[in-house]
Design a protein that fits this description.
- By secondary structure, the chain is mostly helical.
- The protein is 80% helix and 0% strand.
- The chain has ten helices and no strands.
- α1 runs antiparallel to α2 and α5 packs parallel to α8.
- The chain starts with a helix and ends with a helix.
Length: 198
């Protein structure tokens, strides 16, 4: 039994039951091993959880970067709006995304500092990547964003709001918020000259 298989089973249990509700015995049962065998790879439940979470955060960050690389030929507005829609769709169908968002917004109280130590660097990286993307503009209209850094921060705030509504209220409510807020965001961060022609 490899550590990777244990982490795969643990992810399913942590995603479904949270940190407190997940049982090492049940994780071991799913792997076809005895609970003490987990300690050959992980020092504790906390160690297992944090390693699983670190893997999830890394994969989620890679997926976010990959989205913008894969859609680099789209108009800037379509890239940004499409990313928000893709996150809602992923939350609906992907247990890992659900786990990622729940832990980012509601980390276990006993592991708050450790989890936030993973969350903040990820958010900082996202903000930096967005700032560069927004500063570059788009092939057709060039540099259309008035203040790329502020626009990136505002976008992250919008993304957080959509994510949080998905967790609390479900995809339908989150979609309504996205529909209502997107035109306001886009009008606010783009140059008036560009808006008047679009």
């Amino acid at each position: 039994m490899t550590a990777a298989k244990i982490k795969q089973s643990a992810l399913a249990h942590f995603a479904k039951n949270g940190y407190e509700g997940a049982s090492l015995k049940h994780i071991a049962d799913d792997c076809g091993i005895k609970k003490p065998s987990i300690y050959a790879h992980f020092t504790s439940k906390q160690d297992l959880f944090l390693q699983v979470l670190q893997d999830v955060f890394e994969r989620q960050e890679e997926a976010m970067v990959a989205y913008f690389l894969d859609h680099a030929d789209w108009p800037l507005e379509q890239q940004l709006h499409g990313f928000l829609e893709s996150r809602l769709q992923a939350y609906r169908v992907d247990d890992e995304v659900q786990f990622f968002l729940r832990m980012a917004f509601f980390p276990p109280s006993t592991l708050y500092e450790e989890v936030m130590g993973m969350v903040y660097p990820l958010l900082d990286n996202q903000e930096q990547n967005l700032s560069k993307l927004l500063a570059a503009g788009c092939p057709v209209h060039g540099r259309i964003i008035r203040s790329p850094r502020n626009a990136a921060i505002a976008y992250m705030t919008l993304l957080d709001g959509i994510h949080l509504e998905a967790v609390y209220g479900g995809e339908e409510r989150a979609s309504r918020r996205l529909v209502a807020s997107w035109p306001v965001y886009w009008l606010g961060v783009t140059k008036q000259k560009y808006n008047s022609r679009s």
